Amino acid sequence: MMKQSARSRRLVKHHKRLKAGSKINLVALMDIFTILVFFLIVNQSEVRVLQNIEKISLPVSVADTLPVENLVISVIADTVLVQERAIWQKSENGQGLTEQENPEFIQTLTTELTYQASKRTELTETEQQNGRAVTIIGDAATPYVVLKQIMAACAATGYRDISLAVEQQAKQANGEG
Predict the structure, then answer these.
(1) How far apart are the C-alpha atoms of 127 and 119, rounded to whole Å?
(2) Cα gap 57→94, rounded to integer Å
């Protein structure tokens, strides 16, 4: 066996180190992801999304109060959804949501709201005073008669804290809205 020079031993050692491959420093990567998670948690409460329904064009308002999580009734064209479940759709004979009162629609909505109320029987102190909370999301073109029927059915079943979802209008610089 031949003796190796110091230089050749150093080169062999250097090549072994390069063949071993690189190692990932996971501590720095975990720190970055931890900071990212905290950032997302802190900033997630600033945006309120009721439902992602692109078919609805919300009416515009200058209301300052943000919506809270509660029962949601959506009105899209001739379909009414309670908690994203369709309870009323335009029938084949053409009877849908019209400018006149519809007792069958009111009865169906009342039944669904009574069922939703029975799922959570205990009420908070605020709900005992103001009634259960409900948010109505309707297209700006929804007839007032339909909204009136929905609000009457809500009030009859104990959902008296009614909110209408609107798109917030930017306020003018001079204070006028």
Answers:
(1) 15
(2) 23
* 66 φ/ψ angles, rounded to the nearest 5 degrees: -90, 150
- C-alpha distance from residue 87 to each of 32, 73, 139, 155 (Å): 46, 10, 17, 18
pLDDT digits (tens, 9 = 90+) for 31-60: 889 999 988 887 776 555 555 566 666 667
Instruction: Select from 149, 158, 135 the least CA-distant residue to 104.
Output: 149
Residue whose entry in the numeric block shows the structure tokens 């308002």: 61
Rounded CA separation 145/75 (Å) = 12
pLDDT tens-place string over residues 113-146: 888 888 877 777 777 777 888 888 888 778 888 8
